[in-house]
Amino acid sequence: MDHFQNFQTTYGFQLEPILGAIVILLIGWVVALLAGAGVKKLFSKLSVNQHVNSSTGHNTDIEHIAARIVFWFILIIAIIASFNVLNLHTVSAPFSNMVSEVLLFIPRIVSAAVLALIGWILATLVRAGITRVLARTTLDERLSAEVRVEPLSNNIGQIVYWLILLLFVPLVLSALGLNGLLAPVQNLVNDLLLFLPNLFAALLIGFVGYFVAKIVRNIVTGLVSSLNVQSSAERAGVPATTNLPKIAGSIVFILILIPTLIAALDALQIEAISQPAIRMLDQIMFAIPNIIAAALILIITYVVAKFVAGILVGLISGTEVDRLPAKLDMQRFLGSMSLSQIIGKLIVFFAMLFAVAEAANRLGFGQVSDLITIFIAFGANILLGVAIFIIGFWLANLLASIVERGQYNYS
């Protein structure tokens, strides 16, 4: 009995705070568990994970994170209370200061969370509205059929969604008092808002210009088809695989689309991007008349050369010219082709050489034109050599026949 009284006298005053600290810690632990479970259950009923994951596209367990934050926050408060009961103020002071800072910061967190929630709800509603409105139109089907792109309703909705959230970021940072992050983000948002009208104007110009070019292309294609240009060109010798109405429509489409792209890039007002692209498109635009002229030179020359060659072949084939190779014993060199056919092909060949040289001049390819001119001169020398060879071959055959006759008469 004396020993128990001595123990109680010596350690009794220390057991009470220890037991009190343990009780406080246990109660705090239980309360932290209950509070964490309650927060997780509340968030689960609100389907926070589903909403956040569907909006961000990432699988994040927000419910578990929020529950653990509440659990540890209450448990830290219980630990601080336990340390205070044990008079361990030196140990509890840093935790107390941290909790005090958190408690002072909670109103900012709440206001920032409310702003973020408002922004998220607004962005979600706007995205859903835009997606539904665009889904009811035939815009997706038209773009998918004509431009061969995926449906744009979801993409446009996502762009607007993130844009609205971005607009709320400065408000959230301001509510949190994070001025160091607020300034650059605010500048970014301001620059984006200033750029949006230019981007919208560029997209509108490109969209309208594309559909105008498409409509005009269809009109030109139908007009050229109604004029029976394809059949006339085929009779003139143009291959049937060459779809002239489609080519004409594509040329008109490009002629309209290039100025549209120039205007759209100019509307962006980003000189580092727009100026080089505009200069390139200007050069293409300036080159188009020369390209068309060169193409017309080649086409007209080919048609005229084929026509003239056909007439000459018809005239020559009615004479004795086709029999000359046989008389000169040279038909074996020509094979199944007649002399008139060879003359017709040579006319087309050299006419096209002259046309290619002129087309190269129109396009500014002087070296190509000079090379073709040299080849034409070389071809003329070849023809002259062939003519000399034919005459020589004819004279040789003539002399051979004379000699044979002389020997026959002598014998």
Structural class: mainly alpha
- Unreliable runs, pLDDT <50, ≥5 residues? none
* Radius of gyration of CA atoms, rounded to a whole number: 46 Å
Residues in β-strands, percent: under 5%
**Percent range of helical residues:** over 70%
Distance between the termini: 173 Å
How does the overall form come out from the CA principal axes?
Answer: rod-shaped
Write the layout of secondary structure elements.
Layout (H helix, E strand, L loop, with lengths): L1 H44 L2 H9 L5 H24 L3 H48 L2 H8 L5 H25 L2 H48 L2 H7 L8 H25 L2 H47 L6 H4 L3 H4 L4 H24 L3 H45 L1
Please give a handful of descriptors for the protein shown.
rod-shaped, mainly alpha, single chain, 14 helices, 411 residues
Notes on the structure:
- With about 400 residues, this protein is mainly alpha-helical.
- The chain contains 14 helices and no strands.
- The longest helix has about 50 residues.
Short description:
The protein is built from 14 helices and no strands.
